Amino acid sequence: MNALGYLRLSAKDQSKSLEYQETNIRDYCLRNKLEVVGMFKDNGRSSFTFDRPDYQALEAFIKKHKGKCQYLIVLDHDRFSRNLPEALMKISELEEKYGVKVLSTSERVDLDTTDPDVFMKRAFDYLMANKELFNIRHRTKQGVRNAKEKGRYLGRAPYGYRNIVDGSKRNLIEIDETKAFIIEKVFRDYLLGIAPYIIHKSIKDMGFTNKGHSAIRDILSNCVYAGLIRVPAYRELPEKYVKAIHPPIVSEEEFWLVQKMLVNKRRQQVRPDEDFPLRGILKCACGQSMTAGWSKGRRQYYLYYRCVEHTNINVPGKMLHEKFDQLLRELSFRPYQVAFLTAAHALLSEEPMQHKKDRQNKNIQALKSINEKIYLLEERYVNNEIEKSTYQKWFPKFQEEKLALELLLKGKNEKIQTAENAVFDGYIPYMKNIFDIYEKCNIYQKHAIIRGVFKQNLVWGEGELRTPLINPVFEDKLLIIKEKGLLFYEQPFRKQDKSPISTQCRSRTGTVSHRCLRPARLPIPPTGHFFFSGTQIYH
């Protein structure tokens, strides 16, 4: 009589090794005078499904050599399956269709599988195995939930972080300084209103490797970057967010503001166009967006803006652009504000430079340590103290870490800082007039400037431009702008000590107010206040 052996080891249950199972199956076949013609092994495979590589090969072997094998031997029935209905169906199919009897090493070889008592015993065995599988899943889910509730991130580190192992051999994540600045840029640019696909294009050259249409959205919706862990709902337990033990890359305020923007984002995407700089920015008094296009006249084409709701009303684009350009010309920083920006930039640059020096010293020590590890690894390999496979496993890892450290120590960060300072110094003369900066920008930068100056979208109504909120830096210009009929300022009630990124709330009277989140505390000049970071101006 011929027999096949089947072995399975799950990824989580290592109590019955493959060697142990094979030894017991061969001893069983030897005692019962069965010749083993094949041994099939599935390592790290689930017991709930039969979609396992070696089990599929086993079935193919039985079909190909139909009638040549009479028995399929497993150590225990839970090695065969923990899915009660699937297991009973497979056993019935193998016996009736191919004449193969499925036995465990604890059963007699002459067992009558048609006996009702045998069927009941097997059904009970598989039922208990099925129950144990559910218990394993429950314990696993509970363990994962407990770890998340303690603030641990589980799994492969997202872009901007890297996996580490602490002293207790727990997997943790830490910030990868070579990638974290890209994550900061993604959140900053999105808050400025730049479209995700434009952000994706701009960071590809910086080394961003994630692909796909949802790459940027996946980053923006990942709470890990804000130092939070999402604990999903389980049974009667609700979903919640807890503080993570890893450091954040962006602030919680920025993250939740981005979530609000993602939820409120209209599905209809407006593609920016140099001919229509206010398309995607300008709204009608009714609250609907205004689109733009060319209309053919008798002798030439004319540019018009129109509301998507009131399509019978056209606003001449030439007139609107001239009025908007004149409005920007009236906006400028006062001399003391420019001086404050310069001082603030110098103040904000001092501390990062000290951090960079400390980080550079730390990287020098890390490079020294990794060189010692490479030297010891090579020495042990030459002295035949370690296997070749061990050397091939660790040498590339050490070498990769060494190259990354050497790249960081080449002074690339200092060059970037110097370049940023040069850009800032170059823009100082243009701050006397926002229009000069606006004219030199592309369409995406223009939209970012407009959203930075006018904190909510511009509105066209009653033949004039309106806005409910303007950057307080320019509030001392409002009287002049209003007298010239360039902008009607519908100023709502709001607090004066807040920062640039604001969310709406309503007062008891129903007036829209703005609660803001200050990203940093700086000395405040006599009128107006703002925060400057890199080459981006925030209020």
How would you portray this structure in words?
The chain is α/β, with parallel strands linked by helices. Among the domains are: 2-146, Rossmann fold (3-Layer(aba) Sandwich), CATH 3.40.50; 161-264, Hect, E3 ligase catalytic domain fold (Alpha-Beta Complex), CATH 3.90.1750.20. 45% of the residues lie in helices and 16% in strands. The protein has 16 helices and 19 strands. The chain has a 4-stranded parallel β-sheet with strand order 2-1-3-4, with helices on both faces. It has a 4-stranded mixed β-sheet with strand order 9-13-14-15. The longest helix is centred in the middle third of the chain and has 48 residues, at 335-382. Mean pLDDT is 77; it is low at 412-416 and 493-539.
Short description:
The chain is of the alpha/beta class and 539 residues long.
- What is the class of the domain at 2-146 in the CATH system? Alpha Beta
- Kindly state the number of beta strands: 19
* Shape by Cα distribution: elongated
Q: In CATH terms, what is the architecture of the domain at 2-146? A: 3-Layer(aba) Sandwich
- By DSSP (H or I, 4+ residues per run), the number of helices equals 16
**The CATH H-level homologous superfamily of the domain at 2-146:** Resolvase, N-terminal catalytic domain
CATH topology of the domain at 2-146: Rossmann fold
What's the main sheet like? 4 strands, parallel
Give me the Rg, rounded: 34 Å
Overall pLDDT metric: 77
Task: Show unreliable segments.
Answer: 412-416, 493-539
Structural class category = alpha/beta
Could you tell me the strand content as a percent range? Answer: 15-25%
Intertermini distance:
85 Å
Helix coverage percent of residues?
40-55%
